[in-house]
Specification:
With about 230 residues, the protein is mainly α. About 65% of the residues lie in helices and about 5% in strands. The chain is built from 10 helices and 3 strands; from the N terminus they run H-E-H-H-E-E-H-H-H-H-H-H-H. The protein has helices spanning about 30-45, 55-60, 65-75, 95-120, 125, 130-140, 145-160, 165-180, 190-210, 215-230; strands at about 50, 80-85, 90. Strands 1-3-2 form a 3-stranded antiparallel β-sheet. The longest helix is centred in the middle third of the chain and has 25 residues, at about 95-120.
Length: about 230
């Protein structure tokens, strides 16, 4: 089978010596490759079902195969790719049923916590999350899928962190990340509309939390996760 290529994947630029050369500085190479691969997965630049080898991706990034292989192993742990012996890593294909199951599990975890927090967290604490909600709106408006994925998880993580339960935050973040990649195929315009609607729900939910309107919070939280199952 012909090795799939990768177009549009970029490693973040480094400041200081070597900046702009496209070569990742060794002291942070694995983390940068991992970030680049995550963005490529969410953005659809790595195709579900395709197999990618570490040497080919390493050549693309201007690094050796070792940090790419290490980053791919982490993605395998996170459920984004699977190891194909002697060939590389296949991007996992997520069906509608699996995405719905992930959304259901997330709802079982997050909805009760959010409703409990709505009754106990002061309005001022909720107001402090406004920049995170606004970041999802900005990313959605730009149609930046990778940026939206990060800001979406940051918002949900910040909400759940108010529970003080770090195990809960970590489990929920893992489920959230698994539900984000690879994104369901479809027109970019359609996906952007979904992101805009999702981000608007973040803002409405935060406003209801600040106002401590428990009835509206309950409705919005239910609708938010119900929409994630579609």
């Amino acid at each position: 089978m012909e090795q799939a290529g990768v177009r549009g994947v970029r490693v973040p630029q480094q400041a200081g010596p070597g900046a702009g050369t496209g070569v990742v500085r060794r002291n942070s190479v694995r983390g940068q490759i991992l970030d680049a691969l995550r963005s490529a997965l969410v953005g659809g630049e790595l195709t579900p079902g395709q197999v990618y080898s570490a040497p080919v991706l390493g050549e693309r990034f201007g690094v050796s195969a070792t940090p790419v292989r290490e980053a791919m192993q982490q993605l395998a742990i996170e459920g984004a790719v699977e190891v194909v012996p002697n060939r590389g890593f296949r991007v996992v294909e997520r069906g509608a049923r699996e995405l719905a199951e992930l959304a259901e599990v997330r709802a079982l975890i997050e909805v009760p916590v959010m409703l409990r927090l709505a009754r106990t967290v002061p309005a001022a604490r909720w107001s402090g999350l406004l920049p995170l909600a606004e970041a999802t709106v900005t990313a959605a408006a730009c149609g930046d899928l990778a940026r939206y994925a990060e800001s979406d998880r940051a918002f949900h993580g910040a909400v759940l962190s108010l529970s003080g339960n770090q195990q809960l935050v970590q489990v929920a973040d893992d489920l959230h990340r698994r539900s984000q990649w690879p994104l369901v195929s479809g027109p970019v315009s359609g996906r952007r509309a979904d992101l805009v609607a999702d981000a608007a729900e973040h803002m409405a939910l935060l406003e209801a939390l600040v106002a401590q309107d428990l009835g509206v919070v309950r409705r919005l939280v239910g609708e938010h996760f119900a929409g994630a199952e579609g």
